[in-house]
Design a protein that fits this description.
Layout: H1 24-34, H2 39-65, H3 71-85
Length: about 100
C-alpha cells in the first residue's frame, strides 16, 4: 500500500523533476544570467513569482467586485511594495538573482 502524496503550497516541498518546453530565446537568456547549474532554481523562482502574481490578481478582482478600493488602502499597498523592493537583502549586485527558490 503506497502512502498518499502530501500536498505542498507554492514555494514548499522537495524538488521534483518535470519536463517543460521553453522557447529557445528564453533558455538562452536564463543560461546567460545564471549558467547551467542555476537554471532550475531560476525557473522555480520565476514560477513561484507568477503564482503569487496570479493569486494577487484574483484577490484584487474579488475585492473590486465588491466596490472600489479606497485610496487609503491603495496608498498603504503602494508603501508596502516600496518597502519590500528596498529591503536590504534585495539590494546589491545580485538583487533578485541572488535568491534561490525554496
Amino acid at each position: 500500500m503506497s502512502m498518499p502524496e502530501r500536498e505542498f503550497g507554492p514555494g514548499d516541498g522537495p524538488a521534483a523533476k518535470v519536463s517543460v518546453s521553453l522557447r529557445t530565446g528564453n533558455i538562452r537568456a536564463v543560461r546567460e544570467r545564471v549558467g547551467a547549474r542555476g537554471f532550475s532554481a531560476y525557473v522555480d523562482a520565476a514560477v513561484e513569482r507568477q503564482i503569487e502574481r496570479d493569486l494577487l490578481e484574483e484577490a484584487l478582482q474579488e475585492n473590486e467586485a465588491s466596490g472600489p478600493i479606497p485610496q487609503s488602502m491603495r496608498d498603504e499597498a503602494a508603501e508596502l511594495f516600496r518597502q519590500v523592493r528596498s529591503a536590504p537583502e534585495l539590494q546589491g549586485e545580485d538583487g533578485w538573482r541572488g535568491h534561490e527558490a525554496g
